[in-house]
Design brief:
alpha/beta
Length: about 475
Amino acid sequence: MRILFYNWTPFDNESIGGGVTVYIKNLIESLNRNYLDVEIYFLSSGRDYDEHNRTVRIEEVKNNGNYKCHSFTLINSPVFAPAYLNIFNIKSVFECRELKEIFDDFLTEYGSFDAVHFQNLEGLSFDVLDCKEKHKNTKFIYSLHNYYPFCPIATFWKSTDECCECRDTGKTCIGCIGLKAPNEKLFRKLSMRRELETDFSEQKKELFSKISSELDRKYLPEESKALSFEQQRDFESLFSSYRKDFVSKINRYVDTVIAVSRRVGEIALCCGVDREKLIVQYIGTRQAEHQLAHCMNVPKKDEPFTIIFMGYQRKDKGFFFFIDVLNALEERISKKVKVILAARGSQATEAQWNLNKDKFASVIYQNGYTRDEISLLLSKAHLGLVPVLWEDNLPQVAIEMACNGVPVLCSDRGGAKELSSNHFFAFEAGNVKQCVEKITMLVEKPELLTRYFNSYQNLPTMLSHTTDLLKIYGYEKSE
């Protein structure tokens, strides 16, 4: 069997692309280990630009590791990635003949593929799905790791820092997005970034991050410019058609649409995805290979109750909401609480959180974490917080917590609440009072933690998930 995976970021660089990058890397590793008769190809697009040679082309690239995978990148795509970079390049997102022809040529040259699995379509135009007409025997699979088919910025998270209700488009989108930098400046920034990102070594990350931020300031100024009446009318029309046109392509050409949680499936149906094509399938994870399915730690008498937040210092992820929750805890409770914040900084420094640390048994902060640190971090925790404010499809961090025997207290948005059917461990998104009440009850009665796993949803291992995916692809094991 021959499979092509598509994602806008390379699968072997975990510094970009979040949990989806980790997932694809794990998936390829699982295929390499367990299915030697499966030949894997990988294509990325939308982030690799070359100012010295502006032809749009696909080039083979080396993997950062010993993966049995033929990796390629599409250079100088007219559609940028991630999604928000295309807001004022939206016509290319709908239709780009050049991209469609290049993608079709790639399928022909390296096919026949049994399956093309789109982990998203950022970096490509909608009409690459039209290639199904020519490649009828190739299954097209689309996984909904985000909401790109329904929302031009992929998240349903407004620039006003609130969750979009997913119902309206056009005027709502115009009010949300603001005006981004001109395409030429963006092209130059991405080209320069490509020259800087020459390897994946730890030594380069800090320097790359610093120079990349300088490029953002130079080529992506924050200030917005008012749209003319004609511009606003044109963009409203385009955004009004965005979801309808994208979903129409999916319903016509995609064989199977995979929602990574039940909540994602509900939103997809609401946005018009064909019910007959849609399935719910949780992603596999390496952590599930050792999932405990029971509570790892219950604090002993006089032992601090340890709460952990892992992820990013972002409002949509609920980080600043969690700071508000911590400040709102009564001191008789907070003095019993130890807080671990393993959160990569992007919007604020520790000094800006306005967190009264003296109220707690202790507060420990570290700027993010590596994959190798997950188990050690979680071995110290009694409760994990995943207080997302947006419809986060299925946060990888919630999976990691649950698999390591740490109950997850989460908001009612997105898929995290599905890991346990015990409703006590979910609260209304953004409701500080409700979250405080639940933490207070758990600190006072820590034996309640064990109830999370009485209603636990066992998660698929990478092997079981890979096997299920291969059935969708039509795989038949060689004798």
